[in-house]
Amino acid sequence: MITPKWIIFIMILCLPVIASAEDTKQSAQETDLPEGVEFVEYDTPPQPVGGFEEITKNLTYPEEARKNGLEGRVIIYAKIDLEGNVVDIKIAQSLSPECDKAAVEALKVVEWKPAKKGNKPIATWVAIPIEFKLH
Predict the structure, then answer these.
(1) What gap in Å lies between CA 88 and CA 126, rounded to an integer?
(2) How far apart, in whole angstroms, are the C-alpha atoms of residue 28 and residue 33?
């Protein structure tokens, strides 16, 4: 029979495991977002007009990256305002300065539909991965 004394003993043994799991959960929630980036809850995410393919269509592979066989992903945080304008950009994951610049330029020329909360447009940040792949 398990007595209250044993229950307390088991709880004391489990406490470090529970605390460790909480620390891991906390760390996962506290990602390394650049200063000023804050995601706002929405019902409909911001979308590029014509889909995300529009960004790729406007992407120019930097010649230096092409020569060096550089492939990979640039992740950009972009703030889309109430009218669907890209008003701020931060690089979350860099591939190279040339690829980062090309990704930003491709992103800026695309029209956006703003995020919506209810039926109202809202300004929010969105994370956008842009792939550089040689064919």
Answers:
(1) 11
(2) 12
Same domain, 14 and 70: no
Do 19 and 71 fall into the same domain?
no
Q: Which residue, chain included where needed, has tokens 């790729």? A: 56
Measured between its terminal Cα atoms, the distance across the chain in Å is 68
pTM: predicted TM-score of the whole model, two decimal places:
0.71
What would the pLDDT profile of 76-125 be if each residue is shown by its tens digit?
999 999 999 999 999 999 999 999 999 999 999 999 999 999 999 999 99
For residue range 11-24, what is the model confidence (pLDDT) as tens digits? 444 434 333 333 43
Kindly state whether residue 86 falls inside one of the protein's structural domains: yes
